[in-house]
Specification:
Elements lengths: L3 E10 L2 E4 L1 H8 L6 H7 L4 E4 L7 H16 L8 E5 L10 H9 L6 E5 L5 H14 L6 E8 L19 E9 L5 E9 L7 E2 L20 E2 L6 H15 L9 E4 L4 H11 L10 H4 L6 H11 L8 E8 L3 E8 L1
Parallel strand pairs: 4-5, 4-6, 11-12
Antiparallel strand pairs: 1-7, 2-3, 6-7, 8-13, 9-10, 12-13
Helix pairs in contact: 3-4, 6-7
Length: about 325
């Protein structure tokens, strides 16, 4: 066990609540019926969206961090490391994590970096941060933030994507502990047969400033053929088996909220009930990198997770790469 615990979490999200009606009507005008897809396949009912111009991954991340500091009584000066996981940070120079450092009053002796592993990013970051902290005597507390603004790059004519996403951020404080809490194990599996399923930007970075067509900058999407539940089960059963645990030993499975149908199939294969695999995609929409952590946040808030419970985070990113992570909360 890597003895780095989650001290607390906080979530911020767009203030506009949008139900399915607008998307159903949008595609109906184009001769497409998406009601079954939205409701029964990806499991959407509502999603949180930005309600005004000027909102982005930086502003939303700061809202989540401020709420987290309010809950914990900590400040930017208490953080030894600040990590942002994002596919679309507001800036790449300077790293948006340094912009966050500036806005929250971070101290001089601090490590800041942005990382991107698509929807796997925040879970991978949790794993790597924990292990880095365990061998770094001067790094005792880390601020980890996950925030994506995927709606910015969605083609509104693509029924597989438009209406799928929500705008939200999650901030987490990780700190060293002597308690028996922290990451026990993790595993990543890469299946590169789907390496071109979703390309962002669609034209590639080298062509961004040559293109005169905004649509070339949007996600270039091909419906994936991968059996996602099968990939999830392979990763999760391997991690649990290595630690002599069964699915019934896990208090909460925090899955990617990308599609309800995937979660339903994973539940069926692993014999997991809804109480131990919370679904929130009908409230938040799909939020990308932060998705498993917002699920954990909601599970804690609802009293479904308590200290010393075993938790599994599982998610999948473009390419594809999926990660299963086992930890003790």
């Amino acid at each position: 066990m890597v003895k780095v615990k989650i001290r607390d979490l906080a979530v911020s999200h767009g203030k506009k609540v949008m139900d399915n009606k607008m998307y159903i009507e949008h595609f109906k005008k184009r001769g497409k019926d998406v009601e079954h897809f939205l409701k029964d396949i990806i499991g959407r009912d509502k999603r949180y969206l930005f309600d005004e111009d000027g909102q982005n991954t930086l502003t939303l991340s700061i809202e989540a961090v401020e709420e987290l500091f309010h809950k914990t009584g900590l400040s930017g000066a208490d953080m030894d490391m600040i990590i942002l996981s994002s596919q679309l940070p507001e800036y790449i120079a300077p790293p948006t994590s340094i912009k966050i450092h500036s806005l929250i009053g971070g101290k001089k002796e601090c490590i800041c970096y942005d990382m991107n592993s698509n929807c796997c990013g925040m879970t991978l970051a949790f794993d790597w941060i924990s292990k880095y902290m365990s061998v770094s005597p001067n790094i005792n507390r880390t601020l980890l933030i996950g925030c994506d603004y995927i709606n910015l790059i969605i083609d509104t004519e693509e029924e597989n994507l438009y209406g799928h996403y929500g705008d939200a951020a999650c901030a987490v404080i990780l700190e060293k502990t002597e308690e028996e809490r922290g990451v026990l194990d993790s595993m990543c599996i890469v299946k590169n047969e789907g390496v071109d399923v979703a390309l962002i930007p669609g034209c590639g970075f080298s062509n961004m400033f040559r293109s005169k067509d905004r649509e070339e900058l949007l996600i270039k999407f091909t419906p994936p053929e991968e059996n996602v539940p099968e990939s999830a089960v392979e990763t999760i059963t391997t991690v649990l088996g290595r630690n002599e645990l069964k699915p019934s030993d896990i208090r909460m499975f925090c899955f990617s909220q990308y599609a309800l149908i995937n979660i339903q199939k994973i539940r069926e294969i692993l014999n997991i009930d809804e109480e131990h695999s919370l679904y929130i995609g009908d409230i938040y929409g799909y939020t990308g990198t932060s998705s498993p952590f917002i699920t954990l946040y909601e599970a804690i808030k609802r009293g479904q997770v308590n200290r010393d419970d075993y938790i599994v985070l599982w998610t999948i990113g473009c390419g594809s790469e999926n990660i299963g992570l086992l930890f003790k909360y």
